[in-house]
């Protein structure tokens, strides 16, 4: 089970139960969203903590050339109110076209011209890991169908 902040929609309305709600790999050109906390917009000033929520929209741009477990996401923001996506690592990625959780932000960056590049771990690979944890396996070994990448 994965918990998210409140959001007016089906995805961010509480815990995301992977046994009951869909998880599916993304495909090129699918519309994606990720929500998490931007380090630049957050601060800790004891005893107060302010968490600046980041809500990123982007499109799937296929598998990363250097790692089959990572997919790329691309977007362009005209006037972003942030210049870094630091802090978004680990944030969930939801596929609006497929109506399913499709991954988790690994890393990325915002270019000076507003171009956004995100690398996210494919849900297929995350589920392989979770299955190994659930079965208390000391390792995990699997193959991916490269024709679907």
Automatic annotation (TrEMBL):
<dbReference type="InterPro" id="IPR009003">
    <property type="entry name" value="Peptidase_S1_PA"/>
</dbReference>
<protein>
    <recommendedName>
        <fullName>Serine protease</fullName>
    </recommendedName>
</protein>
């Amino acid at each position: 089970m994965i918990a998210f902040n409140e959001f007016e929609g089906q995805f961010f309305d509480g815990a995301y139960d992977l046994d009951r709600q869909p998880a599916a790999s993304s495909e090129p050109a699918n519309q994606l969203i990720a929500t998490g906390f931007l380090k630049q917009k957050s601060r800790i000033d004891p005893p107060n903590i302010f968490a600046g929520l980041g809500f990123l929209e982007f499109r799937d741009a296929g598998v990363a050339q250097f790692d089959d477990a990572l997919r790329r996401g691309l977007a362009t923001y005209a006037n972003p109110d942030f210049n870094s996506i630091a802090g978004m690592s680990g944030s969930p990625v939801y596929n609006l076209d497929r109506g399913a959780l499709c991954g988790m932000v690994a890393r990325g960056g915002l270019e000076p011209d507003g171009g956004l590049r995100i690398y996210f771990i494919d849900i297929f690979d995350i589920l392989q890991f979770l299955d190994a944890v659930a079965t208390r396996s000391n390792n995990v070994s699997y193959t991916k169908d490269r024709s679907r990448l």
